[in-house]
Each structure stands twice: as structure tokens, then as C-alpha cells.
Amino acid sequence: MQNFKNKRVVITGGSSGIGLATAKLFKKCEADVIITARNGELLEKEADQLGVRGIVADQSTHEGIMKMVTESTKNNAKVDVLFINAGIFKLAPITEVDASHLDEQMNINFRGAFFTLKTFIPHLNEGGSVIFLSSIVAETAMANTVAYSASKAALNALARVAAIELAPRRIRVNIVSPGPIDTPIWTKVSLTGTQIGEMNSGVQNSIPLNRFGDPSEVANAVAFLASDEASFITGTDLKVSGGLHLNSLS
To answer: What is the pTM of this model?
Structure first.
């Protein structure tokens, strides 16, 4: 297990799913963990149970980003690990995508992530680590995910450029791209229970390891990339997909 004692870790979207699992792991590794989320009630509950600090903030707004940065860097505190995890996932075929559908996903998944990184940069410790949560659909094709896929592809481009620009400060920037993970996000798509069940069954059958991933498995990948064991790794995209991303290569 990695040791992050006395390291400050900020996780956006940390009140559920992958973000929460990652917060639990870093807390177990003795880090000083701060989680952010839009849902204040859920955030307060999870932060209290975990014994970490929670900041209610919306990554898609300037005000929300300034609040999370200001409150997590009080008294000139520096951030050692920044996990930009917050995002949304909504399905629609191209013919049904309207401006609000596209803008919402781009604003949270890409634009919000961009300005979160930009605003945190002066407060990152030399030799720190930035990790973006992307998705294998940034590079593979899946029907009904055009807006989501585009937002994650843009995020990947941001991460690669940031890896070059922040290298002089020894700040490493990496991407974790999950495949299907068993999180609440799958229950929030605009489908009926039967449709979700059918989609899940079809997706699972396409995964070489024949199962959905667990949030803790993504958390392990994030912790590795943030650790000293990954000290010579930057600009990489670590796929945690059970082999699903390989289907695009066959």
C-alpha cells in the first residue's frame, strides 16, 4: 500500500462512485483528503463518515471552482495530488442531441475540468500529481455517447498538453480511463430499468473479463499514478476496462 502521509489530496466529485472509493483509499493511506461535490447533503454525510473535509462546489461554474480552490488551499497550503474526477454521463443519439445536452456535458466534463486545473496550478506542490478521470469511449465508438465521448476526448488532449507544460515543475499529469464500472452513474441514464438491464447485459458480454469493474479497482489505479512508484510516468492513459478497450483494435 502506498504511503501518502502528510500529502494533501483533492478529489472533485468525491461523494459517490469512483471519487468516494478513491477518497477512502487515500484516507487509508494516511493522506489529508478533501472531497468536493455539488450535492451538499450527500457530501456532508460521506465526508463525516470518512473523516475528511468536504467542500460543496460545482465544477461547472467559475464560482464553484474558485470556492474549491480557495477553501482547499487556505493558509497557503499546497496540493500534492489533484484528482479531477467530477463528471456526468448522459446518452442520446446524434439526431437527438440539442444544445443543452451538449453544453451540459462539455461544461462539466471538459470546461469545468480545464478551469479546475488552471486555477489549481499555482497551488500544486513541486513534484505533485494531477490525474484526470476519462473514459475508454474517448477513443472507442459507442452508440448514443457522442457528447460524452467528445468531452472526454477533449479532456485527454488537455491532459497530454498539461503533462508537457507542467513537467518543468516535476508535476506529473496522467489519465485513468475506466470501462464499465459498477457505480450509481449507470442508474442515472435516461433509460427504463429494463433498458438499463439489457444494456448492462450487452456491455458485460463484450468485456473480455466478463464483468463490470469495481470503483475500488479504479481507485487503485489512481493511487498508483499518484505515488512515488509512478515517478517516471506522465502523459499516460491507464485503461481500467477489463479489456473492453481492446475490442476497438480487433
So the answer is: 0.92
Q: How far apart are CA 248 and CA 217, in angstroms?
A: 22
Q: How far apart are CA 211 and CA 75, in angstroms?
A: 45
C-alpha cell at 98: 440539442
What is the tens place of the pLDDT at every residue in 119-176?
Answer: 999 999 999 999 999 999 999 888 899 999 999 999 999 999 999 999 999 999 999 9
Does 38 qualify as catalytic in the annotation?
no
Classify domain 8-249 at the CATH superfamily level. Answer: NAD(P)-binding Rossmann-like Domain (3.40.50.720)
Per-residue buried b or exposed e for 42-64, using 16+ beta carbons within 10 Å of the residue's own CB: ebeebbeebebebbbbbbbbeeb
83: Cβ contacts below 8 Å, ≥ 6 apart:
9, 10, 11, 12, 19, 22, 131, 133, 222, 226
Q: Residue ranges per domain, the chain?
A: 8-249
- Of the candidates 26, 89, 115, 148, the residue annotated as catalytic is 148
Residue in the structure block whose three cell numbers are 454525510: 45
